[in-house]
Amino acid sequence: MIQRVQSIFLVLITICMVVALSNPIWEKMGAKPSEMAHLTALEYSQQQVVAAQAGLPQQVAPSTAVTPVWYLALLIAIVGLVALYTVFQYRNRLTQTALCAINAIMLTAIMGIVLYRTLYTSKSYGSPGDQGEYQLGFYALVAALIFNALANRFIRRDEKLVRGADRLR
After folding, report:
1. Contact status, residue 134 vs residue 114, Cβ threshold 8 Å
2. CA distance 98 to 48
3. Which of 44, 88, 131, 166 gets the most CB atoms within 10 Å of its CB?
4. Of 1-5, 44-48, 152-156, highest mean pLDDT
5. In whole numbers, what is the pLDDT of the chain averaged over residues?
6. DSSP 132
């Protein structure tokens, strides 16, 4: 029965993961307007303005430091695929519950990585008091956490209903 409410939540998790993969997660302005730090699912980049060498007229060259965070994209993709696979495991609710638990662990790891990158490693960039702005990708991750909890709740409710009906027979 794919039309159950938990199937909708599991598909929404997959959609949230696609949104998180395709949109920026976090952004922070530097001390100067042309300086910017970005976190996407694939990379963390800092663009800084480097002053030109002495003797040259007031030229500035932008310098971009890129740190790959491919493991974040890999975790996001795995969560989306596991949620999509879970939709089609409707005959075995215990498997669905286990897969939702695995997704919850991976989503928690994703949030930990994102918060570590945004709160600790980027503190030295720009103003230390400014935390930056979370973008659409971050909110998609938060929504996926909520949808996962709701899907797990409705799966457990179905299992309880089936066990109660078996007891009455």
Report:
1. no
2. 45
3. 44
4. 152-156
5. 87
6. -
The strands making up 133-134's β-sheet, listed across from edge to edge, are: 60-68, 43-51, 36-39, 26-29, 133-134
- The identity of residue 138, as a single letter, is F
Q: What is the dihedral of CA 154, 158, 159, 162, to 10 degrees?
A: 170
The four Cα atoms 30, 31, 32, 35 give a dihedral, to 10 degrees, of: -20
Q: Give the chain's radius of gyration (CA, Å).
A: 22
Residue with token string 């991976």: 106
| Residue appearing with tokens 């998790």 | 13
Whole-model pTM: value is: 0.86
**pLDDT at 52 (0 to 100):** 55
User: Which amino acid is it at 130?
Assistant: D
b/e 92-115 (16+ beta carbons within 10 angstroms → b) = ebeebbebbeebbebbeebeebbe
Q: Using alpha carbons only, give the angle 95, 99, 100 rounded to the nearest 5 degrees.
A: 115
Distance CA 63, CA 35 (A): 9
Cα dihedral 122, 126, 129, 135, rounded to 10, equals: -60
Q: Answer whether 107's CB lies under 8 Å from 10's CB.
A: no
Asked if residue 74 lies in contact with residue 80, where contact means CB atoms within 8 angstroms, the answer is no
Residue 23 CB contacts under 8 Å (≥ 6 apart), including other chains: 40, 135, 136, 137, 140
